Task: structure prediction
Amino acid sequence: MSSITSPTALHAFLESLGAKPLKALSQNFLIDANIVRKIADSVSPDAGETILEIGPGPGALTEEFLKRGARVIAIEKDPKFALALERLQTPDGRLTVHHADILEFDFSALRGPLKVAANLPYHITTPILEKLCENHTLFSSAHLMVQKEVAERMIAKCGSKEISSLTLFLELYAKLTIAVSVSPHCFFPPPKVASSVVSLEFQKPPLSDPKPLIAWFRKAYQQRRKMLRSTLGIKGSAATLRPEDLSLSDWLVLFSEQGPPLLLQSEKNG
Result:
């Protein structure tokens, strides 16, 4: 295995493939070995543990995970990189490569518990997060590189302007922390904004069926400046609150008190 965590090595590798970063796939490749190690440290794979890596590209993280004794299931949409990843195969066959779109990949073929590692494409970050959470029983944790602005939304607290329905959705399924901050200079080509690695430790949702509550989040945040009495028909002391005023625990209490009947009524009226 030969490292590609330097600009010179990466450029030579891309030239050998006749490949270049594709803007349509949001491809920005890591060229900082120290950051690669820090991300791998946040994932912290034990020898023999399996990592689902989404969009590994040239394979800088893949190579680091394999060096640490992990098994890697790599899902790569770009055919050139999917084929090139086979060069990292270990003598004991710890690498499995799927040339596939993660949004179309059949998770039912996987066997957990797995750890997830990914540098998420900006334009499909939310759909991938939703797919991971909906299949959360397969995963113990996920360690996801996203734009810094998205990371701040993911971990926002009630009362902040960054909090959104995405924040609450994720909090239902996981405990979130920012593990690593990454400068644009650590990538080729350098993105216009900084990035962060957010770690999610998955947990069982507090509701057996979270979907009606998630629908509430989304409806309220579509008109976030309006009071809850206007968007959700809330009554009582919470009527004059706006969605960012409520923590997840507040939402759970409010939903248990007023949720199902109002939701059914709003669907009827709609």
The first strand starts at residue 29 and ends at 30. Residues 7 and 31 are 6 Å apart (CA to CA). Residues 211-269 form a domain with the Helicase, Ruva Protein; domain 3 fold (CATH 1.10.8). The two ends are 59 Å apart (CA to CA).
